[in-house]
From TrEMBL:
It comes from the Bacteria. The keyword Transmembrane helix applies. The keyword Cell division applies. Residues 1-27, 65-87 are annotated as: Disordered. It comes from Shewanella algidipiscicola. The chain crosses the membrane at residues 32-52. SUPFAM superfamilies: Sporulation related repeat. This is Cell division protein FtsN. Residues 74-87 have a biased composition (Basic and acidic residues). The gene is ftsN. One of its GO terms (biological process) is cell division.
Amino acid sequence: MSNRDYANRKPANKSRPRGGRGKSAAQAPRRFPILLTLVTVALLGGFGYFLWSINDSADEQVPAPAAKPVVQPKVEKRDPNALPPKPKEEWTYQRELENKRVEVDIPEQTQPTRPYQMQCGSFRKESQANEMKAMIAFQGLEAQVRKVQGTKGMWYKVVLGPYERKRVAERQRHVLQRGGLNGCQIWFWEGD
């Protein structure tokens, strides 16, 4: 196999035809644009004739309408302050609904709604619970510290509430979260 230097090679002469075909493509007669022009002119002429024939046939088939005399409606003179006549009532639903009786089934509430509470912490030491209560007070909310006897001893819970709706409790939880107090849970009210 011989080594060829393609980097220093001179470019090939592009003027001579490759493959030994004889005549180049540039020397062939250019009939295509002339033929294309003739076909385009023929199509445009045929389309123009078609439109002209449609216009002539439309004029021959449609007779001109006869002129009808314009009748002016008679205008009665009325008193400008008089009211128009009362319209005739066409609707019957008013009479039908006067004697209609509607029955509504309201399900009985089986359980009374319980209020909600929010617990923000549970501590062994009362001082820690009071610190949490103070942090909540800085956010503009009022909390209570409840002393609860658990299975493993005394606990001090920091709670807010009661809330009639859970949505109100969630709003206040978001206020506490913006203040940096996370971990508050919303539960049903346990009572005092």
